[in-house]
UniProtKB/TrEMBL annotation:
This is UDP-N-acetyl-alpha-D-muramoyl-L-alanyl-L-glutamate epimerase. The lineage of its organism: Bacteria, Candidatus Roizmaniibacteriota. Keywords: Membrane, Transmembrane, Transmembrane helix. It comes from the Bacteria. The chain crosses the membrane at residues 207-228.
Amino acid sequence: MNKSTIHIFRKIKRTGIEIKTKNKKYSLNYPFYIWNKFPKSLHRLFADNATYVATWHLPLVEKSKIIYHFSHPPIETIFFKMLLYTIPMNIFEARTLKTSELIKNFYNANFQTQYRGLNFQSSGKKVKKQLKEKAIVLFSFGKDSLLTYGLLKEVGVTTCLVFMREPQSPFENAHKRKLADRFYNKFNEEVIFFPLSIGRLRQTVGLYWGWDIILSQYAFVLIPYYFYYQTRYLFFGNEQSCNFFLADKEGYLVNPVFEQSVSAMQLLQDIPQLFSIQTHIGSLVEPINEIFITYILHHRYPDIGKFQMSCFSEEEPARKKRWCGVCEKCARMYIFLKALNISPERVGFYNSDMLSFKKEKYYVLFNGESDNSAYGGSGLGRDEQLLAFYLAYKNGVKDELINKFKSLHLEEAEKKKEKLIKEYFGILSSYSLPSTLRKKTLRIFEKEQIEAKKYLKKIL
């Protein structure tokens, strides 16, 4: 075999699939009771597609041609569009890159991809599944997934909470295992930890190829769970800001989190349909923005809100602390909590210096751009942060960065406050909400919006 070519093989096993490349094996394993309920007529289709989903990025990492030793997977056409609009997010983390260069590399890598297998179709047997009023929730203990859980419990939908355990995220996994144990003791609700061993294929340096569309990968690898639990829904925690975009220096329209946008979620609907199951993929929190999500979670479901952990958990301080205090996400959540008069300590956030000058670089309002994340680097969260600092200031919060806010941005915030409140405490699009839950969910948001306006009136 040509050393410059990557050869990919896959094998169907008793409890999942095995992927082989460069003499290394990577397994995607399921509990036997889950895999056994997944129709055998779909195993081959699943294996081909799952292998592509796990390895699509390897030609970009190694600048090599790739050959798959099985039939062409139909998921490729879905993922091609997803990746085309997702890959440009890297320009916000690697400042010297251009969107045109990224697209060219992706285009050329895919141009040479080959599939060496006979055209294959599943057996043709129709899979009949009577779906139940159940939802799989991609559960991370972040504010979005916690609020989604609270909403589903309130409207009477049974939940299956799944945390995807990435092998390259040891700090996060350890913290969330502890939270899951406490969560079970409090609510008698199990959080399933799915061991995603294929995550070892992701690149760990450079542009982190393979991390680009992990949520779409999650939606795919959980297909056997759709069948076992007969779930009517799969919910992400994608909020309204996931639809924001801007033009880059070359004129390309770029959404730094395109995979979480409404357009992407609509595209993901094709995944369950490939397997003849009508599970709806969407987000209950699509209509609202981050600061309003934080308010509703802690106002309406305070016992659930106590479990919040929204830290990236990538830096060494995260080894022992639930919130590392040295990332853009920690900074953003901290000022939201202060803006809403929610004690950071109630969610285990004890970094009392988050508003000191040394933390300034983590706030997009002052720094302009952050290298901690694509969204932080884009600057799209600036106005929501402007409002959060303004509310914290009106709330009587005092610290070094509050003083800097007063000198640099208070006048702007005063002029724009009505517009900012309307947008960031507003109820906006709801395209990805299933019709069966839309009215109930929006009714809850409307009630909480009334309460939020009372709070805002009180401090303003």
